[in-house]
Fold these 4 entries.
Entry 1:
Amino acid sequence: MNSIKHINNALKDLDKEVEAILQDMSLPMNEKDNRMLPILQQKRVLTQTLEDLTYLKNNPPKPNQACGISKHRKD
């Protein structure tokens, strides 16, 4: 699935952004927090999407049936 590859790449890019922010010694800690918060929120959404897509790839729904994603999620 191409979408799974794209999400994995996006997650890697977000990890690099977070690492760059953490290593920037010119930024005060509160500024680092402010910059990382939206990135970490994006990462959470992408991680959940990746888990959902992986579940659907491994457990495709039958025709005319609900996909069952809500049963799969733990949160």
Entry 2:
Amino acid sequence: MSTATPSAPTAVKGLAAIVGFLVMVELASGILQGYYTPIYPQIAEHLSIHEGDINWFEAAQLIVSALCIPLLARLGDLVGHKKVLLVSTAVTALGSWWLAFAPGFTSFLLGWAIQGAYVVWLPLEIAIIHRRTRDSGRQELLTRRGAAVLVGSLELAVIIGALSSGLLVDALDMNVLLALPAVVVTAVFFVILVGIEQAPGEDSGGIDWAGLALVTVALGVLMGGLVWLRLDGPGSLRGWLTIVVAVGAFAVFWRFEQRHPEPIVDVRLLSSPAQWPVQVTAFLFGIPVLGGQIPLSTYAQADPAERGYGLGAEPAFISTLIGLYVVTLAIGAFTLPLTTRLLGGVRRALVVACVLVGVGYLLWIPFHDETWQALLNMGVAGLGSGALVAALPAAAAAAAPPERTGIATGMTNGTKTVGGAIASAIFAIALTATGSLDATAEKVAPLSGYLTVWAVCSGAAFLAALALLAAPKHAFSDAPAAPSAIPG
């Protein structure tokens, strides 16, 4: 076999085929993310549980996602990104099949949590593209373009998934309906096996199991404290004490990882001047993109004649609102290369994207009474969100040395997930100040609670823009980062 360095045209041609196969993976990811949302009430009926219990599924998956990202990303750097992509797809398929036959709440909760392994797909895919384009002469540019195509495909698949389940829910048995995503994920496993080339890992060493245990404990304790606050309200003493313990656990974990030669989370990399603005942006972005969605849905369904606020929307309009948001996400992702050129650089494009998200949620504060206002607000936020979803993993890869691209891109999803989980608990507290999100509660959340949610989402996006401005200019250049660029 020839070992000659491929020319740029050859690298681009090979990249097109790889991106084509990875698009199929992201289509499966989008179907998973959009398929279940329209049929939550039917799932609750199928399991004989209250609709409010569905929230526990989301919490369990977020926790598992946040915990598995460091391990799987590290494994990708060690043994090869394709191998880990295959393993995570197999685990996701297992969880998806489990959901199809789960008889009750506990078993369904376990399957839903296992299914969360798909969260590492996009970072691993971007790491594969980043490595494949190394000899093209345009590595970072091609990585950003590939990421834009993947994220655009993901968002379009979310719409496909949502429409499919909504149309089939009355025609198919629930077990058959829930089995369809499992069929898609299983098929994707073989797509990866056949279509993606195997490359060895570029890092050496082992797995920092002690560090993984510490971060697991820290995240678990933090989530436990947030659950107490969500259940008991902002005055929960046990909730706040648990969060204090979690902060201490994170401090111990951070100091341990700084001294470890092969950390599960490379805190020296994440705290480097070129990397921390990207990771902080991902954390802050998780607040609106993950934490702000449920409040938007509940607000849209609120009857203004009963509560004095809300859109009184029917389910059809909720689908329209979600559909428009996802379409604008796809537009923001697909047009990222164009906006990068027009604005004169990646950092400027990311800053503008953060500002769009901030403006979109800020518009909710004065304009929330008419459906056209809701569509406009979510359209503006969606354009910025799509660009950020596509660009942040690629930006993290560009600011990392070659042997650390897996952990760098993976942590953008990890920090985003943690940000969304924290925001979810905070927003629940804001919306239960005088009532409950539980549909059976006699009281409802005040309008001030929703105003707080939108203000926090907007403020987080504007803070993310400031964080990006603090990054050095070379962090977003097309020149690859060198190992020596990482402190320590």
Entry 3:
Amino acid sequence: MKNPNSQDHPWLIALYISGAGGLLAVYIVIGFLTGRWLAEWLDGPRYWLAIGTVLGLFIGILNIALLIKRFLGAQSE
């Protein structure tokens, strides 16, 4: 018998997966803006921009990997 709470909506899953690129872009922009804010607030060097951008990239990739794992794990049950 099927579990009624399972993720049986393929369009919803496709929407989440296809939105991954936009999600990654949002994380990169947030990282860039945070790095710029830190550089201005601390009167620090401009490499805070690069650190914030790369950190946003890594957090975005991690979030997308967890999102994909969640949906692929829900399909295997």
Entry 4:
Amino acid sequence: MGRERLTGSGEDPRVTELRTAVSRLRRELAGHPADFRDRGIAEDELAALDSMAVSGRPEIPRLRRSLLLVAGAIGSVSALAPGLREVRIAVDLFGEPPRG
């Protein structure tokens, strides 16, 4: 109880899932031809999510904040919706932030 399973590499599988989902969405965003107003925000927050995942112990409130910013920035771009959904699912694996 309270322990996370580790992959063969010793990495928390939730972190692996987050890194994979973020990487995929970053690639999809980079390849998306349309330029939209909040694209820079989405790119910056995806980079922040990736950085948190690389650290191995992301802070749940910060994960959720970045997810909200990414969703707000690209939420109207339907072609990116599946990738955004994968990132949301990966963030949800970390559970709810502790209530203070």
